[in-house]
Amino acid sequence: MSGDREDLEAGLVDPCPEVRRLSVTALGRLPLADRAGQVLRALGDDDWRVRKEMAAQLIRSPSGAALEGALIEAAIQVDNIGLRNAAAEVLAWLGGSAITGLEARLSGLPPSGRIAACEVIGRSRDPRAAGILVRLLDDPEPNVRACAAEWLGGHGGEAATEALAARLSGEDRLLILAALQSLNGLGARLPCAALIPLADDQMLAAEALTALGRCGDPDAASAVAARLGSEPAAARALETLHDTGGETAAECERVLAAAPDERLDALAALAREGEPDRQRAALRCLLWSGRTEFVPLFVELARDESLHPVLLEGLEAWGPAAAAALEDLLPRIGNRKLASAIGLLARLTRPASDRDDTARFAAYLDADEPMVATAAAGLIARLGDSRAVPRLIEMAGHEQARVRRAAGYALAEIGRREPAAVRAAVIALEIEGGRGVELCRALEVVGRAAPRGAARAGTCRRSSGSGWSSG
């Protein structure tokens, strides 16, 4: 594209945004100090790509600083938002004298101009920015104060944190909200007593609860739990508070165990339908409550792979009570929920071949629903009950591969504890087809008493490795 002034002027006002963008690229190769009109026109273009290209050219150009005065005027005007934002981006990057110039203009600007200047200063990485923003927290205009508090969150530092925390006790709710948001973004740990009153204000509740969750004070538990039915952020806050550990975690669990039904019901609704972080937090809170009436909900949610580890961790903390609650539930549910319940029980049950009630679990191996039979095989594998071996051998020939695999796994696991019982049951069988594969896997664990079984199980042989295979 020609660098001729007329061609450049025409290109900057061409109807096609791509032509205008290419014209800006050409403009960037020229000295910009005497082209303020063209620069500002491009920075205020209707197309964001043109504005972005012009800002990039100014940042790269050694003569960009010569336009600071024009850029400051553009950044504090309110008629063209695109121009204002693009100019602010360039000034924030330039820093230095640009920030000095803005600071010098602050006292003479109207509120809208001070807000715009506050945004530029807030975007910059200039080391003086935080100090200027702290002073703007006392601006007579509420929106300027809130803007300063918001941008302080991107700078931090002890002085900024202390200044923001000091504003929490005032009457300016907009400033308090912005200060809380910034303090939460900075990870500040604030006194529980200063935050509890703020949690009663609907406008401030979500941010105040987030801060309460981070405070680590046991006294915050009851204050946060009191909002479980009215503010979704309370569950996440209580989760964060509990993760502090020690006395604080114990107090959270005590408060949850004693919580009114309506609060726990609100947690249950959030666990079913909340967004992922709040759903997980609500589920953990229900688990910490230790209330067995929510076990059916836990079984329902167990099918969600993202929640399954949370459920196992929480139920394991219950100890034997978790297995007992799940066992009591089994006769009252069916199909998919039954499979989930048995699956959870299998993960929670400790290996125990001396239990005398395992026969009732083995009955689920005969379920018509493959998912139930598969889950039951996993539970029997955990229990190590050799009385189920004949039925597992039958399952090893099931038409569905996942059922066969579950049966083979169970036979192998039982064989680790009672190899003679499994070997005696398997060795006399014809080992062929899908069932043969699973029986060979069991033989890999218990060993094979050749040659007695070789005539009838001739298709099960040593592979090139150390295991058995069927063929």
The CATH class designation of one domain is: Mainly Alpha
Output the CATH topology of one domain: Leucine-rich Repeat Variant
CATH architecture of one domain: Alpha Horseshoe
C-alpha termini separation: 74 Å
Structural class: mainly alpha
Supply Rg. Answer: 35 Å
**Beta content:** under 5%
Largest β-sheet summary: 2 strands, antiparallel
In the CATH hierarchy, what is the superfamily of one domain? Answer: Leucine-rich Repeat Variant
Give the count of helical stretches. Answer: 29
Give the spatial strand order of the biggest sheet.
1-2
Helix content: 55-70%
State mean pLDDT (0 to 100 scale): 86
Low-confidence stretches: 450-459, 461-471
Q: What spatial form do the alpha-carbon principal axes imply? A: elongated
Instruction: Count every beta strand, where a strand is a DSSP E run of 2 or more residues.
Output: 2
Task: Give the arrangement of secondary structure elements.
Elements: H1 5-12, H2 17-27, H3 36-43, H4 48-60, H5 68-76, H6 81-94, H7 97-105, H8 111-123, H9 129-136, H10 142-152, H11 158-166, H12 173-185, H13 192-195, H14 205-215, H15 220-225, H16 233-242, H17 246-257, H18 261-273, H19 276-289, H20 295-301, H21 308-318, H22 320-329, H23 335-348, H24 359-362, H25 370-383, H26 389-395, H27 401-417, H28 419-427, H29 433-446, E1 460-462, E2 468-470
Antiparallel strand pairs: 1-2
Helix pairs in contact: 1-2, 2-4, 3-6, 4-6, 5-6, 6-8, 8-10, 9-10, 10-12, 12-14, 14-16, 16-19, 17-19, 18-19, 19-21, 21-22, 22-23, 23-25, 25-27, 26-27, 27-28, 27-29, 28-29
